[in-house]
Amino acid sequence: MWLAFKEVLVDLWLFTRGKQTPALKVQALLVQRVPVPQSTPNDLLIPAAQPIVGSRRAYITAHDVPCLREPIKKFDSVIEKLQYGQEVHVDVVQPPYIHTYSEKCTGWVKQSDVTEDFKQIEPEFTPQAVYDAKHVEVNKLRRFIADQQSGGALNLPLQSSEYVLFKLQAHKQPIDWPKSQPRLPGLWQIILKEKNSVTIGVTPKTGSIIEGVFEGINFLGFVEIVLPNSTIRVSSVGRRVVGEYLEEELTHAQWGLFQPVFISFN
Question: Which of 46, 68, 203, 258 could form a disulfide with 108 if both were Cys (CB 3.0 to 4.6 A apart)?
Fold first, then answer.
């Protein structure tokens, strides 16, 4: 820097004596400023909302999905956290968010956390098929119930109690469980007997749980419907074979052999 300044002084001195034009070396002393890109108003615009004619039914695809007050992340803007499989209605699309309303929350959620394809959410089972831990439908069910019994973590075939928990949750019958575990077949009537919201008896009801014994093994099933002649249609897992899904129509005489109790929720 000193040498450059010295040269400039020499050039100026020579110029005053008429011997040289001023050198442009003065520019060497200037600091070149690099322009900083400035945000324009257009850079800050949120994509325009696209209203939908009529709402569309959709389903949440993850657990603890934030439902926001606005279609942008802000401090303390979460109204509620939505859960896997929860049904919502979509009325506005504003990528990457959509506006939804449901019993739990009216607000904005990420498009990537929602699907309109119900088959991506709820598992479908085939009678007499056996479902191991790696089966795609078992993975769906365990996501639905948040693997609350650790069947997925333990790499177990689909369990009787997991299937019934799924059916109750799908039918919007959550259980306020006492702090008693494990919730194995044969123990539900004992664990739930003190709950005011639970009725335990020997008469089947549509939507109730059947808890019985088959060949010395306790099992659980879901009563899909009770017919006028007391015949019941039951879906269950593991009554005969571990992981096997069954759909059965049982007469009063047949289901009476299981010595069952029926658990229903008020």
Answer: 68
Domains defined along the chain, listed by start:
47-119 (2.30.30.170), 136-265 (3.90.1720.10)
pLDDT digit string, tens, across residues 243-261: 999 999 999 999 999 999 9
Q: How confident is the model at residue 104 (pLDDT cuts 50, 70, 90)?
A: confident
Question: Rg for the chain (alpha carbons), in Å?
Answer: 34
| Range from 12-21, 142-151, 205-214 carrying the lowest mean pLDDT | 12-21
Range in 44-48, 120-124, 244-248 the model is least confident about: 44-48
Three-class DSSP labels, the chain: CHHHHHHHHHHHHHHHCCCCCCCHHHHHHCCCCCCCCCCCHHHHCCCCCEEEEEEEEEEECCCCEEEECCCCCCCCCEEEEECCCCEEEEEEEECCEEEEECCCCEEEEEHHHEECCHHHCCCCCCCCCECCCCCHHHHHHHHHCCCCCCCCCCCCCCCHHHHHHHHHHHCCCCCCCCCCCCCCCCCHHHHHCCCCCEEEECCCCCCCEEEEEECCEEEEEEEEEECCCCCEEEEEECCCCCCEEEEEEECHHHHHCCCCEEEEEC
How far apart, in Å, are the Cα atoms of 185 and each of 159, 171, 209, 216?
10, 20, 11, 12
Q: What is the pLDDT of residue 132?
A: 98
Query: Residue 182 has which token pair?
Result: 């494990």
